Amino acid sequence: MSNNPGKDGKPPRTIYEQDAYAHLGGRFPTLMKVQLQESQPAYPAGNYTVHSSSFIVNKFGSIELKRFGMMIQPLEPAL
Fold first, then answer.
1. Lower Cβ count inside 10 Å, N or C end of the chain?
2. Known SUPFAM superfamilies for this protein (predicted)?
3. Burial of 10 (C-beta count, 10 Å sphere; 0-12/13-18/19+)
């Protein structure tokens, strides 16, 4: 949780987030932030993938992650 002061006359706001590590194919995972809703509990430890609703097509026709509202879902264990 972090408190951000308001800008341009807007009230301050609280941002709820959780640290996570993304495996992007490099040698080590990359530290990232996952935003949470105000009353949402933190995600438990585990392996997750980005939910399909977290992607948009931008004005250039390319796919990208939403700036806000990214959701993750647990990976199904391999059988």
1. C
2. Nucleic acid-binding proteins
3. exposed
